[in-house]
Amino acid sequence: MNNQKQQKPTLTGQRFKTRKRDEKERFDPTQFQESIVQGLNQTGTDLEAVAKFLDASGAKLDYRRYAETLFDILVAGGMLAPGGTLSDDMTRTEFCLFTAQEDLETMQAYAQVFNKLIRRYKYLEKGFEEEIKKLLLFLKGFTESERNKLAMLTGILLANGSISASILSSLYNENLVKEGVSAAFAVKLFKSWINEKDINSVAGSLRKVGMDNRLMELFPANKRSCEHFSKYFTDAGLKELSDFARNQQSIGARKELQKELQEMMSRGDPQKEIITFTREEMKKAGLSEQGMIGIIWTSVMSCVEWNKKEELVTEQAIKHLKQYSPLLKAFTSQGLSELSLLLKIQEYCYDNIHFMKAFQKIVVLLYKADVLSEEAILKWYSETHVAKGKSVFLEQMKKFVEWLKNAEEESESDEEEAD
Protein backbone atom coordinates (compact mmCIF):
# COMPACT_ATOMS: atom_id res chain seq x y z
CA MET A 1 0.00 0.00 0.00
CA ASN A 2 1.39 3.36 -1.01
CA ASN A 3 1.53 5.67 2.07
CA GLN A 4 2.64 8.64 0.04
CA LYS A 5 -0.05 11.32 -0.46
CA GLN A 6 -1.24 11.57 -4.01
CA GLN A 7 -0.48 14.92 -5.54
CA LYS A 8 -3.55 16.87 -6.64
CA PRO A 9 -3.63 17.69 -10.33
CA THR A 10 -2.81 21.30 -11.18
CA LEU A 11 -3.89 23.41 -14.13
CA THR A 12 -1.11 24.79 -16.21
CA GLY A 13 -1.14 27.01 -19.22
CA GLN A 14 -1.62 30.61 -20.22
CA ARG A 15 -3.53 32.96 -17.90
CA PHE A 16 -6.58 34.55 -19.54
CA LYS A 17 -6.59 38.29 -20.02
CA THR A 18 -9.29 40.31 -18.26
CA ARG A 19 -12.19 40.74 -20.59
CA LYS A 20 -12.52 44.28 -21.94
CA ARG A 21 -15.98 44.81 -20.47
CA ASP A 22 -14.64 44.03 -16.96
CA GLU A 23 -11.97 46.72 -17.14
CA LYS A 24 -12.93 49.98 -15.41
CA GLU A 25 -13.44 52.52 -18.14
CA ARG A 26 -11.88 55.92 -17.57
CA PHE A 27 -14.39 58.78 -17.18
CA ASP A 28 -13.77 60.92 -20.24
CA PRO A 29 -16.72 63.02 -21.43
CA THR A 30 -14.77 64.75 -24.24
CA GLN A 31 -15.79 62.41 -27.05
CA PHE A 32 -19.36 62.20 -25.71
CA GLN A 33 -19.57 66.01 -25.61
CA GLU A 34 -18.26 66.36 -29.16
CA SER A 35 -20.89 63.91 -30.47
CA ILE A 36 -23.76 65.75 -28.73
CA VAL A 37 -22.52 69.24 -29.72
CA GLN A 38 -22.07 68.15 -33.34
CA GLY A 39 -25.62 66.75 -33.43
CA LEU A 40 -27.11 69.91 -31.88
CA ASN A 41 -25.20 72.13 -34.32
CA GLN A 42 -26.73 70.14 -37.19
CA THR A 43 -30.30 70.22 -35.84
CA GLY A 44 -30.06 73.92 -34.87
CA THR A 45 -33.23 75.54 -33.54
CA ASP A 46 -35.55 72.78 -34.83
CA LEU A 47 -36.53 71.24 -31.49
CA GLU A 48 -38.42 68.36 -33.15
CA ALA A 49 -35.18 67.39 -34.88
CA VAL A 50 -33.28 67.82 -31.57
CA ALA A 51 -35.67 65.39 -29.85
CA LYS A 52 -35.24 62.82 -32.67
CA PHE A 53 -31.45 63.19 -32.57
CA LEU A 54 -31.37 62.64 -28.77
CA ASP A 55 -33.69 59.65 -29.08
CA ALA A 56 -31.46 57.98 -31.68
CA SER A 57 -28.16 58.89 -29.98
CA GLY A 58 -29.14 57.08 -26.77
CA ALA A 59 -28.62 53.77 -28.58
CA LYS A 60 -25.02 54.66 -29.49
CA LEU A 61 -23.84 56.95 -26.68
CA ASP A 62 -23.52 56.20 -22.95
CA TYR A 63 -26.28 58.44 -21.53
CA ARG A 64 -26.22 56.60 -18.23
CA ARG A 65 -22.55 57.39 -17.62
CA TYR A 66 -22.54 60.94 -19.01
CA ALA A 67 -26.01 62.14 -17.95
CA GLU A 68 -24.66 65.30 -16.25
CA THR A 69 -22.64 66.23 -19.34
CA LEU A 70 -25.70 65.67 -21.57
CA PHE A 71 -27.95 67.93 -19.47
CA ASP A 72 -25.24 70.61 -19.08
CA ILE A 73 -24.96 70.84 -22.89
CA LEU A 74 -28.73 70.95 -23.46
CA VAL A 75 -29.13 73.75 -20.91
CA ALA A 76 -25.91 75.80 -21.17
CA GLY A 77 -24.31 74.67 -24.44
CA GLY A 78 -21.31 72.95 -22.81
CA MET A 79 -20.01 71.41 -19.61
CA LEU A 80 -20.40 73.63 -16.55
CA ALA A 81 -17.59 74.24 -14.08
CA PRO A 82 -18.45 74.64 -10.37
CA GLY A 83 -20.30 77.96 -9.91
CA GLY A 84 -22.03 77.80 -13.30
CA THR A 85 -19.38 79.03 -15.74
CA LEU A 86 -18.72 77.11 -18.97
CA SER A 87 -15.52 75.03 -19.05
CA ASP A 88 -13.01 76.79 -21.36
CA ASP A 89 -11.31 73.72 -22.78
CA MET A 90 -14.46 72.02 -24.05
CA THR A 91 -16.41 72.14 -27.29
CA ARG A 92 -19.71 74.00 -26.98
CA THR A 93 -22.83 74.72 -29.02
CA GLU A 94 -24.85 77.88 -29.56
CA PHE A 95 -28.07 75.83 -29.71
CA CYS A 96 -29.21 75.34 -26.12
CA LEU A 97 -31.79 76.54 -23.59
CA PHE A 98 -29.70 79.54 -22.48
CA THR A 99 -29.38 80.92 -26.04
CA ALA A 100 -33.06 80.31 -26.93
CA GLN A 101 -35.72 83.00 -27.01
CA GLU A 102 -36.93 84.15 -23.59
CA ASP A 103 -40.63 83.37 -23.87
CA LEU A 104 -43.04 80.83 -22.43
CA GLU A 105 -43.80 79.13 -25.76
CA THR A 106 -40.11 78.39 -26.43
CA MET A 107 -39.64 77.09 -22.87
CA GLN A 108 -42.68 74.80 -23.29
CA ALA A 109 -41.07 73.41 -26.47
CA TYR A 110 -37.80 72.79 -24.56
CA ALA A 111 -39.74 71.09 -21.77
CA GLN A 112 -41.13 68.71 -24.41
CA VAL A 113 -37.56 67.85 -25.52
CA PHE A 114 -36.63 66.89 -21.93
CA ASN A 115 -39.92 65.02 -21.40
CA LYS A 116 -39.46 62.91 -24.55
CA LEU A 117 -35.84 62.16 -23.66
CA ILE A 118 -36.70 61.01 -20.10
CA ARG A 119 -39.74 59.00 -21.22
CA ARG A 120 -37.52 57.19 -23.72
CA TYR A 121 -34.63 56.65 -21.27
CA LYS A 122 -36.28 56.27 -17.85
CA TYR A 123 -32.93 55.81 -16.09
CA LEU A 124 -32.21 59.52 -16.72
CA GLU A 125 -35.03 60.61 -14.38
CA LYS A 126 -32.97 60.78 -11.19
CA GLY A 127 -29.95 62.35 -12.93
CA PHE A 128 -32.18 65.04 -14.45
CA GLU A 129 -33.62 66.01 -11.06
CA GLU A 130 -30.07 66.19 -9.62
CA GLU A 131 -29.09 68.40 -12.57
CA ILE A 132 -31.91 70.87 -11.88
CA LYS A 133 -30.92 71.00 -8.18
CA LYS A 134 -27.33 71.74 -9.23
CA LEU A 135 -28.38 74.41 -11.74
CA LEU A 136 -30.41 76.19 -9.05
CA LEU A 137 -27.34 76.30 -6.81
CA PHE A 138 -25.39 77.87 -9.73
CA LEU A 139 -27.93 80.69 -10.31
CA LYS A 140 -25.47 83.47 -9.36
CA GLY A 141 -23.20 82.33 -12.21
CA PHE A 142 -25.92 82.86 -14.84
CA THR A 143 -27.18 86.06 -16.46
CA GLU A 144 -30.63 87.41 -15.58
CA SER A 145 -32.01 86.20 -18.92
CA GLU A 146 -30.55 82.69 -18.37
CA ARG A 147 -32.12 82.58 -14.91
CA ASN A 148 -35.50 83.63 -16.30
CA LYS A 149 -35.43 80.87 -18.93
CA LEU A 150 -34.39 78.27 -16.36
CA ALA A 151 -37.15 79.47 -13.98
CA MET A 152 -39.82 79.19 -16.68
CA LEU A 153 -38.60 75.76 -17.74
CA THR A 154 -38.48 74.53 -14.11
CA GLY A 155 -42.06 75.75 -13.51
CA ILE A 156 -43.30 73.87 -16.59
CA LEU A 157 -41.41 70.70 -15.60
CA LEU A 158 -42.90 70.89 -12.07
CA ALA A 159 -46.37 71.34 -13.56
CA ASN A 160 -46.16 68.24 -15.75
CA GLY A 161 -44.58 66.12 -13.01
CA SER A 162 -41.20 65.60 -14.73
CA ILE A 163 -39.44 66.68 -11.53
CA SER A 164 -40.42 66.76 -7.85
CA ALA A 165 -40.96 69.99 -5.88
CA SER A 166 -38.15 68.80 -3.57
CA ILE A 167 -35.73 70.51 -6.02
CA LEU A 168 -36.86 73.83 -4.49
CA SER A 169 -34.62 73.06 -1.47
CA SER A 170 -31.70 74.41 -3.57
CA LEU A 171 -33.33 77.86 -3.52
CA TYR A 172 -32.97 77.97 0.28
CA ASN A 173 -29.19 78.25 -0.13
CA GLU A 174 -28.02 81.06 2.20
CA ASN A 175 -26.07 83.03 -0.43
CA LEU A 176 -28.87 82.91 -3.00
CA VAL A 177 -31.43 83.99 -0.38
CA LYS A 178 -29.23 86.79 1.00
CA GLU A 179 -28.78 88.42 -2.42
CA GLY A 180 -32.47 88.16 -3.37
CA VAL A 181 -31.74 85.72 -6.20
CA SER A 182 -34.01 82.99 -4.78
CA ALA A 183 -37.10 85.19 -4.41
CA ALA A 184 -36.73 86.71 -7.90
CA PHE A 185 -36.25 83.26 -9.44
CA ALA A 186 -39.28 81.92 -7.50
CA VAL A 187 -41.52 84.62 -9.01
CA LYS A 188 -40.79 83.46 -12.59
CA LEU A 189 -40.94 79.79 -11.59
CA PHE A 190 -44.33 80.00 -9.83
CA LYS A 191 -45.81 82.14 -12.61
CA SER A 192 -45.04 79.51 -15.24
CA TRP A 193 -46.12 76.67 -12.89
CA ILE A 194 -49.48 78.32 -12.12
CA ASN A 195 -49.89 79.18 -15.82
CA GLU A 196 -49.72 75.43 -16.62
CA LYS A 197 -51.79 74.27 -13.63
CA ASP A 198 -53.65 76.09 -10.84
CA ILE A 199 -52.73 77.03 -7.26
CA ASN A 200 -54.46 73.91 -5.84
CA SER A 201 -52.26 71.66 -7.95
CA VAL A 202 -49.15 73.65 -6.93
CA ALA A 203 -50.19 73.43 -3.25
CA GLY A 204 -50.65 69.65 -3.56
CA SER A 205 -47.17 69.19 -5.03
CA LEU A 206 -45.60 71.35 -2.31
CA ARG A 207 -47.41 69.47 0.48
CA LYS A 208 -46.34 66.11 -0.94
CA VAL A 209 -42.67 66.88 -0.25
CA GLY A 210 -43.12 69.08 2.85
CA MET A 211 -42.30 72.32 1.02
CA ASP A 212 -45.66 73.98 1.77
CA ASN A 213 -44.40 75.40 5.09
CA ARG A 214 -40.96 76.47 3.86
CA LEU A 215 -41.77 79.22 1.35
CA MET A 216 -40.83 81.97 3.83
CA GLU A 217 -37.24 80.68 3.61
CA LEU A 218 -36.95 82.34 0.19
CA PHE A 219 -36.23 85.52 2.20
CA PRO A 220 -33.46 86.36 4.70
CA ALA A 221 -34.35 85.87 8.40
CA ASN A 222 -34.97 89.62 8.95
CA LYS A 223 -37.61 89.66 6.16
CA ARG A 224 -39.16 86.27 6.89
CA SER A 225 -42.69 87.46 7.75
CA CYS A 226 -46.11 86.76 6.30
CA GLU A 227 -46.56 90.50 5.57
CA HIS A 228 -43.30 90.79 3.59
CA PHE A 229 -43.95 87.56 1.67
CA SER A 230 -47.50 88.65 0.86
CA LYS A 231 -46.48 92.11 -0.39
CA TYR A 232 -43.54 90.80 -2.46
CA PHE A 233 -45.51 88.13 -4.33
CA THR A 234 -48.75 90.15 -4.60
CA ASP A 235 -46.79 93.05 -6.16
CA ALA A 236 -45.24 90.52 -8.57
CA GLY A 237 -48.74 89.38 -9.65
CA LEU A 238 -48.89 86.20 -7.58
CA LYS A 239 -51.67 86.97 -5.10
CA GLU A 240 -52.83 83.32 -5.08
CA LEU A 241 -49.37 82.25 -3.84
CA SER A 242 -49.49 84.97 -1.15
CA ASP A 243 -52.92 83.75 0.00
CA PHE A 244 -51.70 80.15 0.07
CA ALA A 245 -48.64 81.07 2.20
CA ARG A 246 -50.81 83.13 4.58
CA ASN A 247 -53.17 80.18 4.97
CA GLN A 248 -50.24 77.82 5.67
CA GLN A 249 -48.93 80.26 8.28
CA SER A 250 -52.37 80.30 9.91
CA ILE A 251 -52.54 76.48 9.96
CA GLY A 252 -49.07 76.38 11.56
CA ALA A 253 -50.14 78.92 14.19
CA ARG A 254 -53.27 76.90 14.99
CA LYS A 255 -51.27 73.72 15.44
CA GLU A 256 -48.86 75.49 17.79
CA LEU A 257 -51.75 76.99 19.76
CA GLN A 258 -53.48 73.62 20.07
CA LYS A 259 -50.25 72.03 21.30
CA GLU A 260 -49.75 74.80 23.90
CA LEU A 261 -53.35 74.48 25.15
CA GLN A 262 -52.99 70.70 25.52
CA GLU A 263 -49.83 71.20 27.58
CA MET A 264 -51.57 73.76 29.85
CA MET A 265 -54.49 71.39 30.43
CA SER A 266 -52.18 68.43 31.07
CA ARG A 267 -50.33 70.51 33.68
CA GLY A 268 -53.66 71.41 35.28
CA ASP A 269 -53.23 75.18 34.81
CA PRO A 270 -56.18 77.24 36.16
CA GLN A 271 -58.89 77.80 33.54
CA LYS A 272 -58.79 81.57 34.06
CA GLU A 273 -55.17 81.54 32.91
CA ILE A 274 -56.01 79.31 29.95
CA ILE A 275 -58.86 81.65 28.93
CA THR A 276 -56.64 84.76 29.17
CA PHE A 277 -53.83 83.08 27.21
CA THR A 278 -56.26 81.83 24.53
CA ARG A 279 -57.83 85.28 24.05
CA GLU A 280 -54.39 86.86 23.60
CA GLU A 281 -53.27 84.20 21.08
CA MET A 282 -56.60 84.42 19.26
CA LYS A 283 -56.06 88.18 18.79
CA LYS A 284 -52.43 87.71 17.66
CA ALA A 285 -53.34 85.07 15.07
CA GLY A 286 -56.43 86.99 13.90
CA LEU A 287 -58.68 83.98 14.60
CA SER A 288 -62.47 84.20 14.85
CA GLU A 289 -64.35 82.73 17.82
CA GLN A 290 -65.74 80.05 15.46
CA GLY A 291 -62.21 78.97 14.51
CA MET A 292 -61.05 79.16 18.12
CA ILE A 293 -63.78 76.92 19.58
CA GLY A 294 -62.71 74.12 17.22
CA ILE A 295 -59.12 74.34 18.47
CA ILE A 296 -60.30 74.38 22.12
CA TRP A 297 -62.55 71.34 21.60
CA THR A 298 -59.72 69.35 20.00
CA SER A 299 -57.33 70.35 22.81
CA VAL A 300 -59.84 69.42 25.54
CA MET A 301 -60.48 66.00 23.97
CA SER A 302 -56.78 65.32 23.30
CA CYS A 303 -55.42 65.97 26.79
CA VAL A 304 -56.85 62.78 28.32
CA GLU A 305 -56.41 59.01 27.84
CA TRP A 306 -59.88 57.68 26.95
CA ASN A 307 -61.28 54.38 28.19
CA LYS A 308 -61.72 51.84 25.40
CA LYS A 309 -65.01 50.52 26.82
CA GLU A 310 -68.09 52.26 25.42
CA GLU A 311 -70.10 52.06 28.66
CA LEU A 312 -67.27 53.67 30.67
CA VAL A 313 -66.10 56.31 28.16
CA THR A 314 -69.42 58.23 28.30
CA GLU A 315 -69.16 58.66 32.05
CA GLN A 316 -65.50 59.68 31.71
CA ALA A 317 -66.34 62.21 28.95
CA ILE A 318 -69.17 63.82 30.95
CA LYS A 319 -66.93 64.25 33.99
CA HIS A 320 -64.08 65.68 31.86
CA LEU A 321 -66.29 68.08 29.88
CA LYS A 322 -68.08 69.27 33.02
CA GLN A 323 -64.66 70.35 34.30
CA TYR A 324 -63.86 72.27 31.09
CA SER A 325 -67.34 73.74 30.43
CA PRO A 326 -66.26 77.24 31.70
CA LEU A 327 -63.50 77.28 29.04
CA LEU A 328 -65.93 76.19 26.29
CA LYS A 329 -68.50 78.74 27.49
CA ALA A 330 -65.94 81.58 27.27
CA PHE A 331 -65.62 81.01 23.50
CA THR A 332 -69.26 80.37 22.52
CA SER A 333 -70.71 83.85 22.96
CA GLN A 334 -72.01 83.81 19.35
CA GLY A 335 -74.59 81.53 17.72
CA LEU A 336 -72.16 80.58 14.94
CA SER A 337 -69.57 79.50 17.53
CA GLU A 338 -72.16 77.25 19.19
CA LEU A 339 -73.01 75.66 15.82
CA SER A 340 -69.28 75.20 15.08
CA LEU A 341 -68.89 73.41 18.43
CA LEU A 342 -71.93 71.17 17.76
CA LEU A 343 -70.47 70.15 14.39
CA LYS A 344 -67.09 69.43 16.02
CA ILE A 345 -68.81 67.23 18.63
CA GLN A 346 -70.74 65.39 15.90
CA GLU A 347 -67.60 64.75 13.86
CA TYR A 348 -65.62 63.67 16.93
CA CYS A 349 -68.27 61.19 18.11
CA TYR A 350 -68.50 59.76 14.59
CA ASP A 351 -64.72 59.48 14.05
CA ASN A 352 -64.18 57.90 17.51
CA ILE A 353 -66.56 54.94 17.55
CA HIS A 354 -66.58 54.55 21.37
CA PHE A 355 -68.27 57.95 21.55
CA MET A 356 -71.17 57.16 19.18
CA LYS A 357 -73.63 56.64 22.06
CA ALA A 358 -72.25 59.58 24.08
CA PHE A 359 -73.31 62.35 21.68
CA GLN A 360 -76.70 63.16 23.22
CA LYS A 361 -75.35 63.12 26.79
CA ILE A 362 -72.51 65.52 25.83
CA VAL A 363 -74.93 67.95 24.16
CA VAL A 364 -77.34 67.87 27.15
CA LEU A 365 -74.45 68.48 29.57
CA LEU A 366 -73.26 71.50 27.57
CA TYR A 367 -76.84 72.80 27.34
CA LYS A 368 -77.18 72.61 31.13
CA ALA A 369 -73.78 74.33 31.53
CA ASP A 370 -74.96 77.25 29.32
CA VAL A 371 -72.37 76.44 26.66
CA LEU A 372 -75.03 75.56 24.05
CA SER A 373 -78.35 77.37 23.68
CA GLU A 374 -81.64 75.74 22.68
CA GLU A 375 -81.66 77.89 19.48
CA ALA A 376 -78.29 76.45 18.40
CA ILE A 377 -79.35 72.86 19.19
CA LEU A 378 -82.65 73.23 17.27
CA LYS A 379 -80.90 74.83 14.30
CA TRP A 380 -78.29 72.04 14.26
CA TYR A 381 -81.08 69.42 14.44
CA SER A 382 -83.16 70.88 11.60
CA GLU A 383 -80.56 72.40 9.27
CA THR A 384 -76.85 72.48 9.95
CA HIS A 385 -75.92 68.90 10.95
CA VAL A 386 -73.42 67.14 8.68
CA ALA A 387 -73.78 63.69 7.09
CA LYS A 388 -71.39 61.91 9.50
CA GLY A 389 -73.53 59.63 11.69
CA LYS A 390 -76.56 61.80 10.91
CA SER A 391 -79.28 59.14 11.37
CA VAL A 392 -77.79 57.85 14.66
CA PHE A 393 -77.31 61.29 16.21
CA LEU A 394 -80.66 62.72 15.09
CA GLU A 395 -82.39 59.68 16.58
CA GLN A 396 -80.46 60.14 19.85
CA MET A 397 -81.49 63.81 20.01
CA LYS A 398 -85.15 63.33 19.03
CA LYS A 399 -86.66 63.23 22.54
CA PHE A 400 -84.50 66.07 23.86
CA VAL A 401 -85.37 68.25 20.84
CA GLU A 402 -89.08 67.54 21.38
CA TRP A 403 -88.69 68.54 25.03
CA LEU A 404 -86.94 71.77 23.97
CA LYS A 405 -89.70 72.59 21.48
CA ASN A 406 -92.42 71.96 24.07
CA ALA A 407 -90.57 74.06 26.65
CA GLU A 408 -90.29 76.85 24.06
CA GLU A 409 -94.03 76.67 23.26
CA GLU A 410 -94.95 76.71 26.94
CA SER A 411 -92.70 79.71 27.49
CA GLU A 412 -94.34 81.58 24.58
CA SER A 413 -97.80 80.66 25.93
CA ASP A 414 -96.87 81.97 29.40
CA GLU A 415 -95.65 85.23 27.87
CA GLU A 416 -98.90 85.69 25.94
CA GLU A 417 -100.96 85.09 29.14
CA ALA A 418 -98.81 87.60 31.00
CA ASP A 419 -99.51 90.18 28.30
UniProtKB/TrEMBL annotation:
Record key words, sorted: Activator, Transcription, Transcription regulation, Translation regulation
Family matches, as CDD domains: W2_eIF5C_like
Residues of the W2 domain: 247-414
Keyword Metal-binding: no
UniProt cross-references to InterPro entries, sorted A to Z: ARM-type_fold, eIF5-mimic_regulator, HEAT_5MP1_2, W2_5MP1/2, W2_domain
GO BP term, example: regulation of translational initiation
PROSITE patterns, alphabetized: W2
Entry's Gene Ontology cellular component terms: cytoplasm; membrane
Transmembrane stretches, start-end: none
Coiled coil: none
Keyword Transcription found: yes
Region Disordered, annotated ranges: 1-28
Sequence ranges of Polar residues compositional bias: 1-15
Family: Belongs to the BZW family.
Protein's name in the database: Basic leucine zipper and W2 domains 1a
